[in-house]
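May I ask you to comment on the folded chain given beneath this request?
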Amino acid sequence: FVGSFTDAATAKAAIDAIVLATGSGLTNYEAALAEAQANYLPDEAAGPHVFNTIYFLSDGVPTTRTDDGVNDAGAVGDSLSPGEVAAWEAFLNLHGAESIAVGVGGDLSGTDPDLQDAAYPNAPIIVDDFADLTDALLATVPAPITVSGNVLAGLDGNPGTSDPGEDDFGSDGFGQIISVTYGTETFDVST
């Protein structure tokens, strides 16, 4: 899947499309990372409450290489070369992004060097059973930020500092309060 999504329905459709796609039977990590870099378009610059994440899903070790002449030196077998790994990590750092590598299948290990090369800055996630993939991916999504107190001041209590939770202008205009919870009661202010 090439592109971005900001809601669960679009993400699920992208995963379903991957599952239903007819592949070549080959696994090419080099081509996958090159494709991700060529098509990466973050919605916003990364920050304290903006996460730019690239998901790398694989069912096995690489079985072929592109050998496109870019950073290919030192590659062993079909694995990424040290130069390709360094270029991938530099790309992610430049864009304030992370790569979550997910290995799907009972014969994979979190210490798999190929998955470790694709995952940055954290270790890969291993999902033994494909039926558990959705839960594993959802577990990588950061929890929503909750704010209590003055929502105009945000978490640090100071208005105008653009910290998480501060109600401020965004690319789509000024934010809005949808509900307020006081004690055990929630008030929907949109009605």
Observations:
- Residues 37 and 107 are 28 Å apart (CA to CA).
- The beta strands are 52-58, 97-104, 125-127, 169-170, 173-174, 179-182, 185-188.
- The mean pLDDT is 79.
